[in-house]
Design a protein that fits this description.
Helix content: 10-25%
Order of helices and strands: EHEE
Radius of gyration: 13 Å
Length: about 55
């Protein structure tokens, strides 16, 4: 499992957050499962992306 975390300080647009999430998604294998958690406040935004690697049998 891989975890990517980013804290944006201040007022940040949703487009910038989407750009970060898309950048992380492009670096991963398309078959991996992702779970995105976020905590959006007035003075910061915390984004956490957990990636579960697929298991090969």
């Amino acid at each position: 499992m891989k975890t990517f975390e980013k804290i944006f300080r201040g007022k940040i647009s949703y487009k910038r957050i989407d750009k970060y999430v898309d950048l992380v998604r492009r670096t991963l294998d398309s078959d991996d499962e992702m779970q995105i958690e976020f905590d959006i406040q007035d003075d910061y935004q915390h984004i956490k992306i957990a990636v579960f690697d697929r298991v090969l049998h």
